[in-house]
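Q: I have 289 residues here and want to know how they pack in 3D. Can you give me a structure?
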Amino acid sequence: MKIGMVGLGRMGGNMAERLRRSGHEVVGYSRSYTKEASSLADLAGKLPKPAVVWVMVPAGGPTEQNISELTELLQPGDVIIDGGNSNFRDSIRRAEEVQKSGIHFVDAGTSGGVWGLTEGYSLMVGAGEEAFAIIEPVIKTLAPENGYGRMGPPGSGHFVKMVHNGIEYGMMQAYGEGFEILRSSAEFDLDLRQIAEVWRRGSVVRSWLLDLAAHALESDPDLESLRGYAEDSGEGRWTVVEAINTGVPAPVISAALFARFASRQDDSFAMKVVAALRKEFGGHAVKTE
């Protein structure tokens, strides 16, 4: 199958390579790479009908701009896939707008990170049945066995991926807190790398995230090369918002999100207030600048 790939960064570039290794033909385009296509118009002109274009650029403005331009360039029956981390409500809106031109819109929640090239990508697809049938050969190639599915209509793929990332926040935070408790033990001088390796085999907390933690600890046992600073890409926030909107209690995911906020504060003013209050009401000792 021949497909266009817009965005050739860490994810898009590896996805294009995985497709090529399996016999698909990929026409790639990005602002910094124009050897295969000099523009979106050039890319669209090089694809057979129905044309399939996978957009793998940052959520928000870049995704909006590319999908808007592709809608003007493609023809009825063609397919636009948004594989980025877009808000599912934006995907529902975009689907309605794109489909006015007779073009299929697909949202493909994509998980796998930089390991996806060799391990495959978990793909959560929101699409109509006709559009899904057109793109399934590509989806099947990108995913490991049984690692993809049609979640429902457009928007559902990004909704499922949003919740997936919210769960990921909670799991990562639990691992982080657990390893810090182990490292802080006054009674034992524990080898965190060894513990991670033991847990990876047979333990009920084993997971791919634990595998990655073991890999990180092997190369840097005390993680001295890193700062305790964690960004969030949006999905955790959106998951918490949806929990509020639907009245679903989500204390673990919410706490994990706020922990990331806390990681960005070198000296939290909130904790200064707490320290000041403890001094005021109880005469407790405080640390000064």
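Q: Anything worth noting?
A: The chain has twelve helices and seven strands. The first strand starts at residue 2 and ends at 6.
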